[in-house]
Structure formats: structure tokens, C-alpha cells
Design brief:
alpha/beta, UDP-N-acetylmuramoyl-L-alanine:D-glutamate ligase, five-stranded mixed sheet, nine-stranded mixed sheet, globular
Amino acid sequence: MTATPTYDVVGVGNAMVDILAKVPEAFLAETGVTKGIMQLIDAERAIALYAKMGPAREVSGGSAANTIAGLGQLGSRAAYVGKVKDDQLGAIFAHDIRALGVHFATPMTPRSAEGHETGRCMILVTPDGERSMNTYLGVSEHLGPDDIDEALMARTKWLYLEGYRHDGALSLAAFDKAIKACKAAGGKVALTLSDPFCVDRHRDEFRRLVREDVDLLFANEHEIVSLFQTSSLEDALDLAKTEVPMAAITVGPAGAYVINGARMVHAPAAPMARVDATGAGDMFAAGFLHGIARGRNLLTCGTMGCVAAGEAISHIGARPETDLKDLFARFGLD
């Protein structure tokens, strides 16, 4: 007899602290920041940007970590694997995610270790709500197979993998170890593509992973078009139907398309003000996974995702500021 899984979702990805600031459009040009994408930066660049940013907020972040935090707030049984250092920002990250009821036990890099620190993402939000992310990965970059607890991976319904982590030399081996342990125990694998430029850097590996191991793919319209190198979203969706059992594709103010085999449903966007797009995709995945882990239908899962994403864009920062359980209740979701 198969044992009941301990967790609904276990996430694997970056463990970061987000540093958020509102800036005018001119600030991006002055500092050489490309608008609307995530750029990897080194420690020196991170220090220089921080000095010029002005007033900022520090909140625990990381794409997959944000998703798991949302799941924790919704009451899903969740755990996370991500690497931080035993420093001030590392302590903030660990405290924040555990406070949401999420299991987090990845060994910290010792405080005495020289070189890298806990990763941080400088998020610059322009008046139109667009966010430009500048990420110093720090020790998060060194997540590897030794950080993967196979027993943990074997106790989850869903393993959720962050595309950004493909930028780490050891992370593919970590993913492979996690996938094998999860699937051997009957679990399923979800992957978020994270960013179109991340897809450009690792397209061949993403395509292999999607074909061979992924049961549920998360992407926005730009990422899915980049993955399949098509000229239109419609063509990319058609290809997705043939390469992955299920896909949830967000299309901004138009909501999301959910694909399951030949079937496709559309979930409308939630009617909320757009203040800051940071974390919208992360919270969409949280809402969707919360629904799918509870056996909800495709439209309900997509709607849960859109409502959670709507909450994320209604304020500065990726983590929810409104109780997602209460929000779901207001939209008639459970």
C-alpha cells in the first residue's frame, strides 16, 4: 500500500532576499539596467545598485520560494529546498518561510565560509508597475545534489522546480536526484520556466526536461514562445499540447490558458489594480498548485492562480499582503 504523502508540494530553487524600491524610468538608463527582465549580477554590482536605490524594503524572496510561501499561507502542506548562508539575510529568509508553516531544513553555508553571501535580488519598480530585477545569486548558486533529501522528495505529491536554478553548475544534478526520488515514490513534477532569457540560455535542457520528466509546465506567453521558438502564442500552445501532459500559461491582463492533453480552458484575470508585477507568476503557480493538489478542475485551478496573481500585483513585493484564504473565499473558491 502506498503511504499518504506528507507534503502537497516541495519546491526546489533559489533562496533570496528581495530588496524592492520604486524608481523613475530615468534611473534605469542612468544605471544601465534593462527594463522588465531579470539580469544576473555580481556582488560588486549588487553593492553599487543598492547604494543608488534610495529607500527600499527587504523581504524574503526567490521565485519558487515565493510560490511555496503562497502555498503555506493557503494551508497547503509545503516544504522548500534552497541554499542560504548563516548571515543576517539568511536568517531573515529562514524565519520568514518557516513562519508560514513551511518546512525548511536545507543546511546553511557556515558563517565562516568566505566568498559568497546569501543571495539578494534588487527589484526596481517603475511608475508603470513593471519590475526590473538584478540578481546576485550568492550561495544559492551552489545548491547541489548534497542538499537534496531523497526521503523528503519521496513524501510529496508535487515537486516544483524553478527554471532560474538552471544557472547553477550543480543544480541540474540536484534536479535529477530530486526528480528520481519523487517519481519513484509516485509523485509528479512541475517546472516553471522563470524568464524568457533563462529559457534562451538553457533551451535544450528545458526541452529535454519537459519531454522526459515534467507533468505540469508553468510559463508566461513570452517564455513558452521562447521555449518552442514559434512566431505566435497559438503555435506554442499547440506544441505544448504534444510535449507535456499539462501546462498553465499566463497571458497578463488576459488571464491564463490551461492545457490538459487536447483540452484547453481559459481563466480570466482577477479584477485588481496593477501596482507591481513582481511575483505575479510565482503566486499564479501557488494558487494553481493549491487547487491541483486538492483535485480541483482545470478552470478552478486556473482561476485560483489568477486570483493569487492578482493579489501579488496589487502591491509592492512578491509575497501576499492579503490573506489568500480570505481572498479565495471572496471569489467563491475553496
